[in-house]
Protein backbone atom coordinates (compact mmCIF):
# COMPACT_ATOMS: atom_id res chain seq x y z
CA UNK A 1 0.00 0.00 0.00
CA UNK A 2 2.84 2.39 0.79
CA UNK A 3 4.32 1.88 -2.66
CA UNK A 4 0.99 2.78 -4.27
CA UNK A 5 0.71 5.90 -2.12
CA UNK A 6 4.25 6.89 -3.11
CA UNK A 7 3.57 6.39 -6.81
CA UNK A 8 0.38 8.44 -6.66
CA UNK A 9 2.22 11.14 -4.69
CA UNK A 10 4.92 11.44 -7.36
CA UNK A 11 2.34 11.54 -10.15
CA UNK A 12 0.51 14.39 -8.42
CA UNK A 13 3.82 16.24 -7.91
CA UNK A 14 4.61 15.98 -11.61
CA UNK A 15 1.11 17.19 -12.45
CA UNK A 16 1.65 20.15 -10.11
CA UNK A 17 4.86 21.09 -11.90
CA UNK A 18 3.31 20.69 -15.36
CA UNK A 19 0.20 22.77 -14.64
CA UNK A 20 2.44 25.59 -13.43
CA UNK A 21 3.58 25.98 -17.03
CA UNK A 22 -0.02 26.77 -18.03
CA UNK A 23 -0.62 29.43 -15.37
CA UNK A 24 -2.48 27.22 -12.92
CA UNK A 25 -1.20 27.48 -9.32
CA UNK A 26 0.64 24.17 -9.16
CA UNK A 27 2.47 25.17 -5.99
CA UNK A 28 -0.73 24.69 -4.02
CA UNK A 29 -1.27 21.30 -5.66
CA UNK A 30 2.24 20.29 -4.59
CA UNK A 31 1.73 21.59 -1.04
CA UNK A 32 -1.66 19.87 -0.72
CA UNK A 33 -0.24 16.61 -2.06
CA UNK A 34 2.55 16.81 0.50
CA UNK A 35 0.06 17.39 3.31
CA UNK A 36 -2.10 14.47 2.18
CA UNK A 37 0.93 12.18 1.79
CA UNK A 38 2.11 13.14 5.27
CA UNK A 39 -1.26 12.38 6.80
CA UNK A 40 -1.45 9.01 5.03
CA UNK A 41 2.04 8.01 6.24
CA UNK A 42 1.55 9.33 9.80
CA UNK A 43 4.13 12.10 9.25
CA UNK A 44 6.95 9.57 9.17
CA UNK A 45 9.12 11.41 6.65
CA UNK A 46 7.74 14.92 6.41
CA UNK A 47 7.40 17.33 9.33
CA UNK A 48 4.83 20.02 10.01
CA UNK A 49 7.57 22.62 9.55
CA UNK A 50 8.17 21.50 5.96
CA UNK A 51 4.45 21.52 5.19
CA UNK A 52 4.12 25.02 6.66
CA UNK A 53 7.09 26.21 4.59
CA UNK A 54 5.61 24.75 1.41
CA UNK A 55 2.30 26.55 1.95
CA UNK A 56 4.10 29.79 2.92
CA UNK A 57 6.21 29.64 -0.24
CA UNK A 58 3.11 28.92 -2.33
CA UNK A 59 1.33 31.96 -0.91
CA UNK A 60 4.42 34.14 -1.39
CA UNK A 61 4.84 33.04 -5.01
CA UNK A 62 1.18 33.65 -5.81
CA UNK A 63 1.40 37.11 -4.24
CA UNK A 64 4.53 37.91 -6.26
CA UNK A 65 2.94 36.65 -9.46
CA UNK A 66 -0.16 38.75 -8.85
CA UNK A 67 1.75 41.90 -7.92
CA UNK A 68 4.25 41.68 -10.79
CA UNK A 69 1.70 41.07 -13.52
What order do the helices and strands come in, and which of them pair?
Blueprint: H1 2-20, H2 26-40, H3 48-68
Helix pairs in contact: 1-2, 2-3
Strand content: under 5%
Number of helices: 3
Shape: flat
The biggest sheet, with number of strands, parallel, antiparallel or mixed sense and barrel status, is: none
The share of residues in helices is over 70%
- Could you list the spans in which at least 5 consecutive residues all have pLDDT below 50? none
Number of domains: 1
How big is the Rg? Answer: 13 Å
> Quick one: how many beta strands?
0
What is the mean predicted local confidence, pLDDT? Answer: 90
The run of helices and strands is: HHH
Structural class: mainly alpha
**N- to C-terminal distance:** 43 Å
Keywords:
69 residues; mainly alpha; 3 helices; flat
3D architecture notes:
By secondary structure, the chain is mainly α. It has one domain. 80% of the residues lie in helices and 0% in strands. The chain contains three helices and no strands. It has helices at residues 2-20, 26-40, 48-68. The protein starts with a helix and ends with a helix.
Kindly summarize this structure in a few lines:
The protein has 69 residues and is mostly helical. The chain has helices spanning 2-20, 26-40, 48-68.
